[in-house]
Amino acid sequence: MTIAVRPLAGLDDLRACEALQQAILGDSSRRLLRIPALASIERSGGLLLGAWDDEEGRPALKGALVDLVAETEGFSARFTIFLGVHTDAVNRGVGQALRRAERSACAEAGAGLVFWWADPLRSREAHIAFNKLGAIASAHRRNALGPLRDSSSVGLASDRIRVEWWLDAPRVRAVLEEDRPPPHFDLGLHQMHVLTETRRAPSGERLVVGLDAEPTKPHVLVEIPVDLDRVRRVDLEAARRWRLVTREAFEVLFAHGYVLVGLVHEGGRSFHLLERADRGDVLGRS
């Protein structure tokens, strides 16, 4: 697969973007951005990027990113309202290619921050955001989007964390320009306090059964499912339990000054890593 990222422009591109969303989210999703909305976003200064597979001579849209113009804390910014990759292109670097192109476009426009709402129970997205892009998170909102009918969301409250990608921070430059892993890769597991208690169910999936809501170390771990969709298919109530327990964990940790800085995958399990530190200090490390 040879991927080329370029802006989406013209009705044909917007039709392709609408069709891609339908393939990823399902026809009944409340989050679908139809052609009139996409055209309005583009004409108002927003960013629409497409990742095209040109291998067979007929370009096929394999991923898309849609940003709104935003401002936060006095900074010119972009807010991502859609980033999706077709199922047959997952794990092929499409999402990262879109983010890198977005970073370049933001630099040209003078925007220093991109932020978005992310489901904290999705480990693949967290790995890309925190480990591959150098983003951080420091806020959580319960049921941020209300009930969703997406094939990947139905049955679960739409809790979200606010991911912040400070495009020119030393942390981000080290990861993207120098190909260096984030600083937490140098930490040993003995330096981290695991707050969640889990056990393996007969199905093979891990179930969350408890939470230590009194963190004692500067670095703490919150376990999440390796594959949320698989947990939902096997045991929806178990997925709901993951949502409720991790919701409590994030609310406690963010209130106590922790910043989400990475995803740790160890022994076939996934953990969010949070550090009790000033956000500026975290971003300033390389």
Secondary-structure map:
Layout: E1 3-7, H1 11-25, H2 35-43, E2 47-53, E3 60-72, E4 75-85, H3 94-109, E5 113-118, H4 123-132, E6 136-141, E7 160-166, H5 170-177, E8 192-194, E9 196-200, E10 206-211, E11 219-224, H6 228-234, H7 236-255, E12 258-266, E13 269-276, H8 279-284
Parallel strand pairs: 4-5, 8-11
Antiparallel strand pairs: 1-2, 2-3, 3-4, 5-7, 6-7, 9-10, 11-13, 12-13
Structure overview:
This protein has eight helices and 13 strands. It has helices spanning 11-25, 35-43, 94-109, 123-132, 170-177, 228-234, 236-255, 279-284; strands at 3-7, 47-53, 60-72, 75-85, 113-118, 136-141, 160-166, 192-194, 196-200, 206-211, 219-224, 258-266, 269-276. The chain has a seven-stranded mixed sheet with strand order 1-2-3-4-5-7-6. A four-stranded mixed sheet has the order 8-11-13-12. The longest helix has 20 residues, at 236-255. The chain is globular, with a radius of gyration of 19 Å. The two termini are 32 Å apart.
Give me the oligomer status. single chain
**Largest sheet geometry:** 7 strands, mixed
- Low-confidence stretches at least 5 residues in length (pLDDT < 50)? none
Give me the strand/helix succession. Answer: EHHEEEHEHEEHEEEEHHEEH
C-alpha end-to-end distance: 32 Å
**Rg (CA only):** 19 Å
Mean pLDDT: 93
What is the overall silhouette?
globular
Side by side, the strands of the main sheet go 1-2-3-4-5-7-6
